[in-house]
């Protein structure tokens, strides 16, 4: 990508330091087409400061388990020929809302029910005979039936 330099552009070292990622991570994100750089006349890689937001979104999304392909789908919806507005970000991320709500609900159950019977079939806790006597939840399917909200009962 070629363009005219602006004072706020960052070297790869500055970009890595500000984003809090190793240089190798920036190379990886760029190879994956998630971020872009350009080359100055000395052939040094430069980043538009706005790429920092993309790196931040990638890092946070990865931390909560969003795959790179899901991240790419969102980033690909953003315009590259002009500054990305708050509205652009909101519209691009809209498809994530239901997926993130689902993950938040699952993480909440994980946090709150680790010490309780989750209907996994182990029958190893004192509460299992109360909530999953003789593994009756296993008849409705595999996995932790009370965690995934598929037990056909209120958790
Ligand atoms: S915790 Fe596994 S069946 Fe109760």
From TrEMBL:
Output the GO biological process annotations, alphabetical, semicolon-separated.
Answer: response to oxidative stress
- HTH merR-type domain location, by residue? 9-77
Is S-adenosyl-L-methionine set as a keyword in this record?
no
SMART domains in alphabetical order:
HTH_MERR
Checking InterPro entries in the record gives: DNA-bd_dom_put_sf, MerR-type_HTH_dom, MerR_fam, Redox-sen_tscrpt-act_SoxR
Record has Cell inner membrane as a keyword: no
Instruction: Report the GO molecular function annotations.
Output: 2 iron, 2 sulfur cluster binding; DNA binding; DNA-binding transcription factor activity; metal ion binding
Keywords for this entry?
Answer: 2Fe-2S, DNA-binding, Iron, Iron-sulfur, Metal-binding
Show the PANTHER family listed in the entry: REDOX-CYCLING DRUG-SENSING TRANSCRIPTIONAL ACTIVATOR SOXR, REDOX-SENSITIVE TRANSCRIPTIONAL ACTIVATOR SOXR
Q: What is this protein called?
A: Redox-sensitive transcriptional activator SoxR
- Its source organism is Limimaricola soesokkakensis
* Gene field: soxR
């Amino acid at each position: 990508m070629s363009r005219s330099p602006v004072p706020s552009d960052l070297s790869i070292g500055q970009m890595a330091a500000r984003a809090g990622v190793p240089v190798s991570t920036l190379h990886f994100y760029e190879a994956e087409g998630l971020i872009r750089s350009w080359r100055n006349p000395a052939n040094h890689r430069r980043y538009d400061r706005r790429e920092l937001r993309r790196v931040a979104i990638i890092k946070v999304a990865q931390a909560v388990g969003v795959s790179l392909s899901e991240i790419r789908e969102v980033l690909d919806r953003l315009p590259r020929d002009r500054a990305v507005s708050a509205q652009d970000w909101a519209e691009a991320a809209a498809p994530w809302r239901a997926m993130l709500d689902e993950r938040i609900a699952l993480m909440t159950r994980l946090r709150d029910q680790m010490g309780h019977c989750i209907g996994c079939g182990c029958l190893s806790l004192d509460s299992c005979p109360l909530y999953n006597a003789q593994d009756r939840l296993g008849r409705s399917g595999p996995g932790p039936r009370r965690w995934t909200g598929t037990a056909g009962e209120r958790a």
